[in-house]
Design brief:
The chain has about 160 residues and is α+β, with helices and mostly antiparallel strands. It has 6 helices and 4 strands, in the order ααββαααββα. Helices cover about 45% and strands about 15% of the residues. A 4-stranded antiparallel sheet has the order 2-1-4-3. α2 (about 30-45) crosses α6. It starts with 12 loop residues before the first helix and ends with a helix. This is UPF0303 protein GCM10019016_058160.
């Protein structure tokens, strides 16, 4: 007897917004970026995920790693997804979900160049308590929901030890 894998449940806009409210830093330093990026590398290696990982703060790249199987195209996706976080102050997956909830798509309705912006999962805002969004942590190389979930898992783990 073969079992069919269950399809992944797509999170609702409300669930995605709750993630953003919950995953907030007290501070975010260069050392924090290194530790978070290293944690993401560790998680990705355990899964043999062919991803690129990027952490930016205030326009500066603080961390980057490209694991086996990733390509330069992943870096282009990272830049496009990160720009969505920088422009909207929300996770790239959440921005896309908000457009879908209105019965449209980001590409159809945002009026932004899709070669510059991508509301696909994998980029999450780095939000500091009392400050707001100061940067983004981004993963590219898996299907968009998996990219998003990998970042959220790493943030949950990182912030639970802080």
């Amino acid at each position: 007897m073969t079992t069919t894998p269950k399809p992944e449940l797509t999170p609702t806009v409300e669930e995605l917004e709750a993630q953003e409210r919950r995953l907030v830093f007290r501070r975010f330093t260069h050392d924090d970026a290194w530790a978070l990026g290293s944690l993401l590398v560790e998680l990705a290696r355990e899964r043999q995920a062919p991803v690129a990982i990027d952490i930016h703060r205030a326009g500066q790249q603080l961390f980057h790693a490209a694991l086996p199987g990733s390509t330069p195209d992943n870096d282009a996706w990272i830049a496009r997804k990160r720009r969505v976080v920088e422009r909207y102050g929300s996770a790239s997956y959440l921005v896309g979900a908000r457009f879908r909830a209105k019965g449209t798509t980001f590409e159809e309705s945002s009026r932004l160049d899709p070669d510059t912006y991508a509301a696909h999962g994998g980029s999450f805002p780095v939000t500091v308590e009392g400050v707001g969004v100061v940067g983004a942590v981004t993963v590219s190389g898996l299907p968009q929901l998996q990219d998003h979930r990998l970042v959220v898992e790493a943030l949950e783990h990182f912030l639970s030890r802080a």
